[in-house]
Design brief:
36% of the residues lie in helices and 11% in strands. The protein has 140 residues and is α+β, with helices and mostly antiparallel strands. Strands 2-1-3-4 form a 4-stranded mixed sheet. Helix 1 runs antiparallel to helix 2 (19-28).
């Protein structure tokens, strides 16, 4: 339920997308999602939400780690400008048929490998325009 709410609340930030559609997609994935969690697959293979600038990998923890981990269930920022979203489900070998069946249950679900997140090249140029500063000093 927490994962479904996180996905739906993140998608709902966009005026072009429907929270209800995200809820329906997560409902279609619910049974296989429980299997992925119970078998521990989501510890190493995340569910990935791709929506606009959002590339959110959702994992779970089990055992004692689950007792001490602080989760952040807040919507992920960046989906406000999204006009499309896809929920990529991991498809580990023992559950491939079940994942495929879930994916066929809703158009927003995918068992394909999610695209790599977009990275913007950092601008390592100078923070100060030295020529402009020199002109300002000489004009005094």
């Amino acid at each position: 339920m927490v994962i479904s709410d996180l996905v739906a609340d993140t998608v709902a930030q966009s005026s072009a997308l429907s929270r209800d559609e995200a809820v329906q997609a997560m409902f279609a994935a619910e049974s296989v999602g429980r299997m992925l969690i119970a078998a521990g697959h989501l510890q190493q293979h995340p569910i990935t939400l791709v929506a606009g600038k959002v590339h959110c990998e959702i994992t779970t923890v089990t055992g004692t780690a689950a007792l001490t981990l602080e989760e952040n269930p807040n919507p992920v920022p960046g989906a406000a400008g999204a006009d499309d979203f896809t929920i990529h489900l991991p498809s580990p070998a023992p559950l491939q048929k079940q994942v495929k069946a879930a994916v066929e249950g809703h158009a927003r679900l995918s068992d394909a490998v999610p695209p790599a997140p977009e990275t913007k090249a950092a601008n390592f140029g100078p923070l100060i325009d030295l020529e402009a500063l020199q002109r300002a000093v000489t004009q005094r």
